[in-house]
Amino acid sequence: MKVLKKKKKLLYIITLGDYGGAQKFCYDFCLQYKNTVEITVICGTGGWLYDKLVNNGVTVIKMESIKRSISPLNDAYSIIRLTKHIKKIGYDTVFTHSAKAGTLGRIAAKLAGCPKIIYKVGGFVFNEPRHIISKFVYVIIEFLLSYITDVMIYVSKYDIKIAKKYYFRPKDSVLIYNGIKLEKSKLDNNNEAVILITVANFYPAKAHSIIIEVAQYLAKMGYKYKWYLIGKGPLASTIKEEVKAKNLGENIIFTGYLSSRGVKDYLSQSNIFILPSFKEGMPLAVLEAMNASLPVIVTRVGALPDFIVDGENGFLVKPNNVQELVKKIVKLIENKELQNNIGQKALKSIEDNFSIDEMWRNYNKIII
C-alpha cells in the first residue's frame, strides 16, 4: 500500500493587498505551488491580492494590524498574533515578502520555532531617501534579523553587495531574478504625439515628482507627448494636484489601477517606458515593458543595472537627475530607428534570460 506523502505547510506573509509587483509575485507563487505545498497567506489589507487568491482556492487571512507605518503597539500586537497562529498550525516554512512583513514575520516565526524562515528582499528600505538616523535604525534591524533568517532571496547583485557591506548573515543567500510569462506583443505605436508610460504605484520611492519636472521641460521644448501614469497609491492625489498646478493636465494622464491585460494594452500603444525610482528590487513592470519591445529609461537602482546595458537594450540614469532623464528621452523621441533597435534588443534580453519557468526552477530548490 502506497503511503501518501504529507504536504508541507507554508505561510506567506505580505504587508499590502493592493495590486503591485510584490502582490503579483505572491499571486503567481501561490498558483505555482498550491498543489505541492499547503499554502496560507496573511496580508495586512484586502484588495486585489485577497480577492484573486480567494477566487483561486487559496486560504487568505487579513490581519489589519500589519501596516506599512511604524506603530509599536500595532507591531507588537501583530507579532503576538502571528506567533500564536504559526504555533497553532505548525508551519514548516514561513516566507516573508516586503520590509514590514519581513520584520514582523521573521520575529514571529522565530518565536514560534518555525523550522525554515525565508525573506525575499525587494530592495532594502534604508536605501530610500530618509534621515540618517532612520537609515541607521533600519540597518540595525536588518542586521539582527539576518541572524534568524534561514534563506535570504535577493533579486539583485546590488542588494547582495549591500548585505555584505553591513555584515548581514543569514544561513543561506541566493540570487533569483524575477521572471515573466513571455508573450509576443503587437505594437501599435505609430502615434503623432509621442506616448510615454510609467507603471508604478504612487509611493515616495517611485519618484513621481521627478516625472512632473521632466514633463515641464519637454513641454517647454515644444514636444507633443502624452505621458500615461498607471497605478494607484497614497501619493496619487498629491501628484494630481502638482500636475494641475503646473498646467500639465493635457500631457499627463492618470489611468488609476489597470488589470494586467489593461497594462499590456497601454504598453503596446506606447513609445518609451520610464521609471525614475529611488529604490527598486527587480520591477516586473520593466520586464513587461521590455517584453513589449519598448525602449526603457530607468534609474541605476536595484537589479536594473544587472540586466540593462546602457545604450544597448535600454538606458540607465542616476536617481534624481532630471537633466539626464530629459536628455535620454529626447534622444529617443528624435530617433525612431533607435527606439525600434533598443526595443528589439530589450525583447531579446528578456526572452533569453527572464522566463518565468526559469525563475520557478530556482524556487523549486528552496520550496519543494
Q: How do the helices and strands follow one another from N- to C-terminus?
A: EHEHEHEHEHEHEEHEHEHEHEHEHHH
Give the count of helical stretches: 14
Q: Within the CATH hierarchy, at the fold level, what is the topology of the largest domain?
A: Rossmann fold
Could you name the CATH class of the largest domain?
Answer: Alpha Beta
Class of secondary structure makeup: alpha/beta
Number of strands: 13
Second-tier CATH architecture of the largest domain: 3-Layer(aba) Sandwich
End-to-end separation in angstroms reads 24 Å
The order of strands across the largest sheet is 3-2-1-4-5-6-7
Structural domain count: 2
Biggest beta sheet summary: 7 strands, parallel
Report on this structure.
The structure is a single chain. The chain has 368 residues and is α/β, with parallel strands linked by helices. The mean pLDDT is 94. The chain is built from 14 helices and 13 strands. Helix 1 runs parallel beside helix 2 (48-55). It has 2 domains: 9-179 and 355-367, Rossmann fold, CATH 3.40.50; 194-353, Rossmann fold (3-Layer(aba) Sandwich).
Summed up:
With 368 residues, this protein is of the alpha/beta class.
Which features would summarize this protein structure in a list?
single chain; 368 residues; alpha/beta; Rossmann fold; 2 domains; six-stranded parallel β-sheet; 14 helices
